[in-house]
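F.,

This is the one I mentioned.
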């Protein structure tokens, strides 16, 4: 099974094809994975690998490590575009997520006031008022919606909580009133003998309807770029991504392809 874990709480900077020079913040264990989805394309691997033994980093530990790294980067004159919350699972499930965001914004203002703070989230905890309030404070509130069809979400994202459905997530995302970017991974292939393809006309029409309801600043369309735990997945090429993007743009929605 493909597993690419980040073995530290603060990692990078790395070059992100979507965000530029990014310093990563991993609020999951450094030796395992904790996520509310079990996506078949996740480069961190499946949840079945276990949560490891390190546990979640404390708020104070994250603050201390981030302060040290940002201070070092300033002293060395290093360039930075964004501080990005991602890593080995879903960052918003951390019980101190809200406080960690506050600490991060304070440190950003101290060392790199021009840098953006971004969260990559799978959208499953945005119904939590504290999580939603924290996401409204960041510069890049990037939220996942890969499919507006329950049958596809069950295969592609495999929610741990079986009660998580697209309609609930879409409804929750409307609270941001356009203060968000939706990221959609387009992919096709097979998993456990089931065909999965969220690039069909029906899938795109359902996504367009959802985008119109959510009213995001923009939509990020992208496809797999690294090895995945499911070997029978196919990358959607840039030309096809652009054709799909044009269909969405025709409905008055801003789209970027990666």
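My design for it:
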């Amino acid at each position: 099974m493909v597993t690419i874990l980040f073995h530290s709480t603060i990692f990078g900077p790395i070059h992100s094809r979507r965000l530029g020079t990014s310093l990563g913040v991993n609020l999951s264990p450094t030796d395992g994975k904790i996520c509310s989805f079990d996506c078949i394309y996740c480069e961190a691997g499946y949840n079945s690998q276990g949560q490891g033994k390190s546990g979640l980093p404390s708020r104070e530990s994250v603050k201390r490590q981030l302060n040290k790294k940002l201070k070092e980067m300033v002293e060395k004159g290093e360039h930075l575009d964004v501080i990005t919350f991602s890593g080995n699972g879903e960052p918003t499930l951390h019980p101190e997520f809200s406080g960690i965001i506050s600490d991060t914004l304070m440190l950003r203002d101290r060392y790199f006031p021009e840098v953006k703070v971004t969260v990559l989230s799978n959208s499953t905890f945005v119904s939590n008022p504290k999580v939603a309030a924290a996401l409204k404070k960041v510069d890049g509130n990037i939220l996942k919606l890969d499919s507006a069809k329950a049958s596809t979400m069950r295969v592609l994202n495999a929610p741990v909580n079986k009660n998580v459905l697209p309609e609930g997530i879409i409804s929750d995302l409307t609270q941001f009133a356009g203060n968000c970017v939706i990221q959609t991974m387009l992919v096709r292939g097979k998993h456990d003998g089931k065909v999965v393809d969220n690039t069909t006309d029906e899938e795109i029409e359902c996504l367009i309807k959802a985008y119109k309801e959510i009213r995001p600043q923009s939509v990020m369309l992208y496809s797999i770029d690294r090895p995945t735990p499911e070997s029978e997945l196919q990358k959607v090429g840039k030309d096809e991504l652009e054709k799909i993007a044009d269909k969405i743009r025709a409905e008055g929605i801003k789209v970027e392809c990666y």
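The longest strand covers residues 10-16.

Talk soon.
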